[in-house]
Design brief:
CATH topology: Growth Hormone, Chain: A
Order of helices and strands: HHHHHHHHHHHHHHHHHHHHHHH
Number of strands: 0
Oligomer: single chain
Number of helices: 23
Largest sheet: none
CATH superfamily: MFS general substrate transporter like domains
């Protein structure tokens, strides 16, 4: 009876898994919004007049404010105010940013004084792309802040329990958002006859995600009361000092993990932005919808193995080894996209490679994020996650710009690309608003760049494993420690 009374909310499996579901669904909707334009990139140039460089600028804008320091501020906010305030703030920013982006690409924006002003400078970037980028910046602040908040929330609710499994499942559920949006975004755009419709749909989902996190906040408040936390948040969070940031930055292992993170994610998230069009360019005769139908299977490999992987990491460990394996799979997949797929045009090869890449996507995050609490003390954990995300965001901001610029540069003299763009201009001159013309870009060089990121990530993963063996951080150790009975504890105490 006493044990039942003392049992906290997170000790109840149904409660902690319900909490996980609520925050995972919020991120599920967020990731749908992130990639809503990826499957319809081939429609953006004929519909909105966005070049690959303009699209790359738009994708990079998600991380611009984070790189400029917002994520560092977010770390302060998270460690000072706690996960509830920070989570509500981040969810609200995502909704606000989504609404601005939606307005920028809609007919309501066309012909306004704001559009004319935005078109008066930096003419290479259309006004709609500028407005969408502004909204995506604000959304990106909320999304990245939410990511760190969710990581700390899981660390709190699953401490000493199924942490790797929980983090792996959260990431799998969120990444399945990629599957969902690549399935429905082209369909919604085709049915409604506009690229605006899928963006509007995802904006509504973000509002629902805000409601879900509100319910989680109610549960988290009850947990804090049970744990005897202070009214304003956890005791550890109240002890946080700004000077603790310096200790994080001075940590050698922190920088190894942060650089590994930025290299790995730079080969994944920017790839998602171009992946569907890459498949359409390398698989002859398929439509944007068909390319999206193939690419949507990307997160499925991750979702399938996440349960097994998380359970293995919790009970057996080997987190550093999983990072190495994930990097190897990443390299192999991008080399196939760069060299084999353009030569074979095989849909079977495309499907298989996409699924294997998804497996890599499960291996690295599931091993990486539960490792952070092992190397960083709890009171600065929120700031540590935010700083890792900050370093990660530098890469995620620059890489889409790089890929977009490289794509336009290497295809500047491509006869097929030149002919397609000329056809678009001709149709526009004839009064066709949304010319249905596909531009067949050569994606070899961008895919090789992604593979190079994987090689660098592999080198760091090997170094991290060696460092763990030397310093005994416990990265290879299981997350769940064996339960010691009272009798065994007494025996151990007597022996000591």
């Amino acid at each position: 009876m006493t044990a039942a009374i003392r049992e906290a909310l997170n000790d109840k499996p149904w409660a902690r898994w319900t909490a996980l579901t609520l925050i995972a669904l919020m991120m599920f909707f967020a990731y749908m919004f992130v990639d809503v334009m990826g499957p319809i990139k081939s429609l953006l140039e004929p519909d909105l007049g966005w070049s690959s460089t303009a699209y790359g600028t738009y994708r990079a804008s998600e991380y611009f404010l984070n790189v400029c320091g917002f994520l560092i501020i977010a770390g302060f906010i998270l460690d000072k105010t706690g996960i509830r305030f920070t989570g509500m703030l981040s969810a609200s920013l995502m909704v606000i940013g989504a609404v601005i982006k939606l307005y920028g690409i809609s007919d309501l924006f066309v012909g306004t004084a704001l559009e004319h002003w935005l078109n008066s400078w930096w003419t290479a970037l259309p006004a709609s792309a500028k407005m969408a980028s502004l909204g995506f910046m604000i959304f990106g602040c909320g999304c990245e802040m939410a990511g760190t908040t969710v990581s700390k929330s899981i660390a709190k609710w699953f401490k000493g329990k199924e942490m790797a499994l929980a983090m792996g499942l959260e990431m799998a559920i969120a990444r399945v958002g990629v599957f969902a949006i690549f399935s429905i975004s082209p369909w919604i755009a085709a049915e409604m006859g506009t690229v605006v419709a899928p963006v509007a749909f995802c904006t509504v989902l973000l509002l629902i995600g805000l409601i879900f996190f509100s319910v989680f906040c109610v549960m988290d408040t009850k947990l804090d009361r049970q744990l005897g936390a202070a009214k304003s948040g956890e005791e550890a969070e109240e002890e946080f000092k700004a000077s603790d940031i310096a200790r994080i930055f001075s940590s050698h292992i922190f920088w190894v993990v942060a650089l590994l993170c930025v290299l790995y994610y730079s080969a994944i998230f920017p790839f998602q932005a171009y992946g569907a069009e890459m498949l359409q360019c390398n698989l002859e005769g398929i439509s944007a919808q068909q390319a999206s139908d193939i690419f949507r299977w990307f997160p499925i490999g991750a979702a399938v193995i996440t349960v097994f992987l998380g359970n293995f990491l919790d009970h057996k460990g080997k987190g550093a080894t999983m990072l190495i394996l994930g990097a190897l799979l990443l390299i192999g997949c991008h080399l196939i996209f760069a060299l084999l797929l353009p030569a074979t045009h095989s849909e079977v090869l495309a499907y298989a490679t996409i699924i294997v890449l998804g497996v890599s996507f499960a291996l690295v995050p599931a091993a990486l994020w539960p490792s952070v609490p092992k190397i960083i003390e709890e009171k600065v954990l929120g700031s540590a996650y935010c700083l890792i995300f900050w370093v990660q965001n530098i890469g995620l901001c620059l890489v889409p710009l790089l890929i977009g610029a490289v794509l336009d540069s290497v295809n500047a003299d491509n006869p097929a690309v030149v002919a397609a763009k000329a056809q678009i201009e001709t149709l526009r001159a004839e009064g066709v608003e949304n010319p249905d013309v596909f531009i067949p870009y050569d994606y070899t060089v961008p895919m090789l760049i992604f593979a190079c990121f994987g090689v660098l990530a592999l080198i760091l993963a090997v170094y991290l494993k060696a460092l763990d063996k030397k310093k005994h951080y416990g990265l290879e150790a299981p997350n769940i420690k064996p339960v010691v009975s009272a009798e065994e504890a007494e025996v151990e105490s007597a022996e000591e």
